[in-house]
């Protein structure tokens, strides 16, 4: 490695030490210029199909549009079927690719199962699966007997990946991406806490625990889907409708430093399209590079990850 390349790596890594610069639009712009990032070539995903959950706004919509511009057919989901279809039409007109909008509230496992069934009835393969749908809830509510944050972020992605796995080609061009969050650094994996009841409920805590669980699922699916690349990532701090709704004070304070949805979706698109992203599996990414999965708090043991898998398998088997 040349000294110039080594220097660039040092600069990139240094952005992570104080956290704030690396997760803002400054970190994104510095890295983009530092590494001279390009965008996927138009038509590079021709013949491929991608599923992007939560694709009607924010990072999901930006990611879906980026994949469509690369030539992929894209299926997006949203809680409102009419809105999902309307946004799909907008993306299709903007990109020239085929885009399908399907309605599914993935905080309900029966709707996740229904989505998998409908997808398999329409298409015979899916090359890229992006688990992007997410929300932070202010109050405790159970869906399917489980706190809804865990259904939305953990159980539904598990169910969808398992059900759709026969349609994912055994190829390094095939990708599964979990859209996690930097919030996962504040909690290690603890399956018992994913099942916590309403006492002491905090939406931000439930969200962070779920995002940690998504990274653990990426590890386990990477082993169980050989020949296909499975990754988790976080997008940095991004200005989205969901952030405005769930953390308005945070959004107002950091607004000048927040990334645009297109910047937050950049690594998603890269992980889905770049040849280099198919050479490894089970890693955690930010700004097109693997990042550490623990800072102060440990990530969690392999035994806990296997317990997570068993829990997901037991709950979703009923749907």
Question: In a few lines, what is going on in this structure?
Answer:
The protein is an alpha/beta fold and 319 residues long. It has two domains: 1-37, no CATH class; 41-316, Rossmann fold (3-Layer(aba) Sandwich).
Based on CA inertia axes, which overall geometry fits? Answer: globular
Q: At the first level of CATH, what is the class of the largest domain? A: Alpha Beta
**Which class best fits the helix and strand makeup?**
alpha/beta
How many domains is the backbone divided into?
A: 2
Poorly predicted residue ranges = none
From the 3D structure, determine the CATH topology of the largest domain.
Answer: Rossmann fold
Number of helical regions: 14
Give the tally of β-strands. Answer: 10
Strand order of the largest sheet: 3-2-1-4-7-8-9-10
**Rounded radius of gyration (Å):** 18 Å
Beginning-to-end CA distance, first to last residue: 51 Å
Strand content is 5-15%
Please summarize the sheet with the most strands: 8 strands, mixed
Calculate the mean pLDDT score and round it: 93
Q: Considering the protein shown, what is the CATH homologous superfamily of the largest domain? A: NAD(P)-binding Rossmann-like Domain
Instruction: Summarize the amount of helix as a percent range.
Output: 40-55%
CATH architecture of the largest domain, by name, is 3-Layer(aba) Sandwich
Written as H for each helix and E for each strand, in order along the chain, the element string is HHHEHEHEHEEEHEHHEHHHHEEH
């Amino acid at each position: 490695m040349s000294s110039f390349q080594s220097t660039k790596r040092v600069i990139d890594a240094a952005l992570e030490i104080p956290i704030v610069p690396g997760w803002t639009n400054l970190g994104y712009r510095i890295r983009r210029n530092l590494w001279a990032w390009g965008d996927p070539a138009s038509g590079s995903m021709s013949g491929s199909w991608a599923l992007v959950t939560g694709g009607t706004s924010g990072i999901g919509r930006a990611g879906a549009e980026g994949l469509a511009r690369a030539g992929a057919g894209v299926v997006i989901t949203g809680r409102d079927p009419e809105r999902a279809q309307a946004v799909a039409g907008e993306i299709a007109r903007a990109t020239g690719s085929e885009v399908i909008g399907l309605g599914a509230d993935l905080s309900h496992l029966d709707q996740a199962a229904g989505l998998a069934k409908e997808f398999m009835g329409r298409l015979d393969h899916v090359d890229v699966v992006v688990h992007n749908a997410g929300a932070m809830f202010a109050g405790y509510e159970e869906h399917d007997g489980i706190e809804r944050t865990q259904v939305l972020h953990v159980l539904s992605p598990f169910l969808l990946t398992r059900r759709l796995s026969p349609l994912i080609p055994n190829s390094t061009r095939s990708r599964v991406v979990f859209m996690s969050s930097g919030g996962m650094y504040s909690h290690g994996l603890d399956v018992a806490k994913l099942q916590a009841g309403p006492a002491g409920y905090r939406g931000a805590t439930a969200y962070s625990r779920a995002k940690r669980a998504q990274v653990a699922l990426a590890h386990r699916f990477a082993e169980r889907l050989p020949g296909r690349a499975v990754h988790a990532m976080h997008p940095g701090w991004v200005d989205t409708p969901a952030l405005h709704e769930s953390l308005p004070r945070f959004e107002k304070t950091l607004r000048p430093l927040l990334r645009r949805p297109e910047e937050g979706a950049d690594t998603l698109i890269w992980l889905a399209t770049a040849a280099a992203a198919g050479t490894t599996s089970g890693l955690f990414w930010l700004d097109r590079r693997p990042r550490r999965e623990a800072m102060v708090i440990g990530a969690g043991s392999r035994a806990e990850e296997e317990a997570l898998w068993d829990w997901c398998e037991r709950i979703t088997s009923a749907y």
